Every structure is written in structure tokens, then in C-alpha cells.
Amino acid sequence: MRPADSYRRGTSRGVVVLGLVGFVLAVYVVVVLGGGALIGRTDSPSLALSVLATTVVALAFAPVQGMLERASLRIATPYDVLTRFAERVDREGGIEDLPGRMSRLLAQGTGAQWAEVWLQVSDRLTLAGRWPLDARDAAAGTDGPRTLPVRHGDQVLGVLRLQERPGLPLTAVEERLFTGLAAQAGLVLRLAGLRAQLEERHQDLQARTVELENSRGRVIEAQDAERSRLERDIHDGAQQHLVALAVNLRLAQVVAARSPGRARQVLAEQVDAARLGIDTLSSLSRGIYPRMLSEQGLVAALRSGAGASPIPVTVESEGTGRPPSQLEAAFYFCGMEAVQNAAKHSGAARVTVQIRQDSGRWRLDVVDDGSGFDLARTLAHAAGAGLMNMQDRLDAVGGTVAITSEVGSGTTISAVGPAAHEGG
Fold first, then answer.
1. Model confidence over 24-53: pLDDT tens digits?
2. What SS3 class is residue 391?
3. Are residues 241 and 302 in the same domain?
4. What is the DSSP string of 67-133?
């Protein structure tokens, strides 16, 4: 330890010790001697008054010590204050509340009404520390808060702010403390800013995890419902046709020996029955995965699927190539859902579907010129099942869906796939 450091510390401690001694003597004089004079007992100290003086000293010792320590801090040099802060950081360790400790140091060292530390997080200033915690009462009629940026190189990492007390501007020593702390706090705020960014990212990931879990749950429920529908449709449709076909073929086999003409007639009738069964199965398969999508691609499949829409649908494509198969399927069902919603609910005169690549990501935009809707209200009243289905499908392949709509101004649904390096 350098001699200057020892001298400064000894001076500060001496102020505290002398102050405490003076406090004890003052209590003794006022309570014991002053009280004794009042009751007419000056020849010897009163035991009761001595006990009272001792009690007062015991109860007030810690608060008075704190006041004296704060006073010694105010009369210390800026070097002393900054040294104490560095030592406290080393002693207490951790960066969880560095901005809070820094704001406390700044307020106590300058005698400010309040002090704050702001961090630059994600391109915006965020309040990270304040002292006193419940203070923010810059009195009316006073000058505004004093502000100094904290830099590390050319990068602004945060801001220190303090409010001077009315009628008590900062002294030259306190000014040096303010500017010195701002000059020396760059690395501290850099660490605190990195922690804040990590915490913000952690919260975003937690929210995303919950969203994905909910989405997966809805996908599973939708798959169960779809499986039940297919089982019912197969049982009530295709299975009945196939069972009838099998029965009639057995009948033709039985009557072939006795009545060849009757057998030929039964077999001829089964051609239509077989065709009907094929048509039923084809209709079911279109609801699962359209064959045109896998054979000819997304544009052809959307044009074919949208051809039956009661309103004109234009499908446009920029560039060449095809999205990955899973993303292509998600785009197809998302696009068809959007077109069907526009036809059912929007009153639109035209729908435009556009497929393109944007900054390495595949993108599908469905725009209608219909009446639009209140998105928040629709989702809040559980009327947006189709919209949630779109989001779930894109979630499953790592994409996103953005829906923009206002009453009277149409609707735009934008589905964006993951970047190429993210899979898909």
C-alpha cells in the first residue's frame, strides 16, 4: 500500500473515530451533567442518568457511525472514492448489481439528490441502477439532471445521471468525482451491459420455448383430429366402396359357372365402382399432400389449388429453384389457408400470392384487398384457428408468420422460412 493511500485512509478513519468520541462525550454531557443540573444533583453522577446516557449511545451509535462515514466519503478526494469502489467490487465480487453500487457511490460521493446508471442494451438506454432506490424527485424549479456518457473507446456504453440538491451545486471535488467515475466506468458498464444482453436473450429464448411448446401441442392436437377425420372419411367413403367391390366380385365368381351372362354384367358394373373408389381415395389424398406439389412444385400446386376459389387469385414467383420440401409443404398449406380465409371472410375482389427469396430466405406473401379485421380481437376471441394453424406449420420448420391487417384496408400474410444455414 502506498503512503498516500495509508494517509488518506487514516484521515478518513480518524474523522469517524473523532466524531464518535465527540458524540459519546456530547451525550454524556447533555444527559448526565445537564440532567443532573436540572434535578439539582451536581456533586456526583446519577446512576439513572448514566444508564440513560449509555442506552442512548448504544441505540444511536450505528446510525451516527453511518452518517460520519458518509461525511468522510464526501470530504475524500475523487481518487479515494474510486479506489474504494474498486476495492468493494473486488471484495464483494460478481457483476449482478454493479450499476446499483455505482449509483450509490455517485450519490453518496457527490451529495446528489439521486443518481442513476443507464446501460446501452440492444441499441437503447435502459435504467440499470438508481440510488436511493425510491428516489426520483427532482424538485420543481431546480435545474435538470446532470448527465455524462460512459465510453469504452469510441463506443458509448451508458450514461451517468445525477440531480443536484436545490441550492447545492456540485463542488469542484464532486465535479472531479463525477467526471472521473464516468471516465473509469467503461469496463464496468461493458460487463454489466453484456450481462443485461444475455439476460434479455435468455428471457427471449424462454418465451420462444413456451411458444414452441404451445405450438407443438396444437400441432399434435391437430394431427389427432386430422387422423380421426381421415379414419372416419375412409370408413364412411373409400372403405364402403371397396367392401362393396369385394362383395360384387365374389358374387360374380359364384354366378360365373351357372350364369356367365349375369357374371359379365356384374363385372362390368364394377368398373364404375372401382373408378368411384379411386376418385374417393384421390380426394382424400389431396387433403394430405397434393401430388402436384411434389411433382411440379409450389407455384403449380398453388395455382391448381386456388383455381377453385370463387375470387380471382394470382400466383407470382420471382427467381428459380424450389424451397426445401418441408418448407414447400408448409408454404402450400399456409397459402391455401390464407386464400380460403380471404374468400370466406374478407369480401376481397382479388388475392395475390407471391413467392420469392429475400436475403437468403424463402418468403410467401398473400395479399388481399378485402375488408380486413382486428387481429388482436380475432385472436383474443379464439376465432383465429386458421391463423394459428399457419403459425404452427411454419414453427414446425423453423419459420415465422407475420399478419398485418386493419379494418377497411385489407390483409397481408407473410410467411418466411429459415435461413439456408439453419436447415430446412
1. 788 877 777 777 777 766 666 677 777 787
2. helix
3. no
4. HHHHHHHHHS-HHHHHHHHHHHHHHH--STTHHHHHHHHHHHHHT-SEEEEEEEETTEEEEEEEEST
pLDDT cut 90: percent of the chain above it: 11
Q: Is residue 19 part of a domain?
A: yes
Q: Which of 256, 288, 320 marks a domain boundary? A: 288
Q: Can you tell me the distance from the alpha carbon of 291 to that of 294, in angstroms, rounded to the nearest whole number? A: 6
Q: How far apart are CA 299 and CA 88, in angstroms?
A: 66
Q: Is residue 192 part of a domain?
A: no
Question: What average pLDDT is seen over the chain?
Answer: 77
Sheet containing 155-163, strands listed edge to edge, beginning at the edge strand earlier in sequence? 124-131, 114-121, 155-163, 146-152
- Short-list 397, 395, 390, CA closest to 414: 390
* Assigned C-alpha cell, 215: 405450438
Q: How many CB atoms lie within 10 A of CB 110?
A: 26
Antiparallel, parallel or unpaired: β 351-358 and 313-317? parallel
Judge whether 59 and 3 are in contact, CB under 8 Å: no
- Domain boundary among the residues 134, 160, 184 is at 184
Residues of the domain holding 229 = 219-288
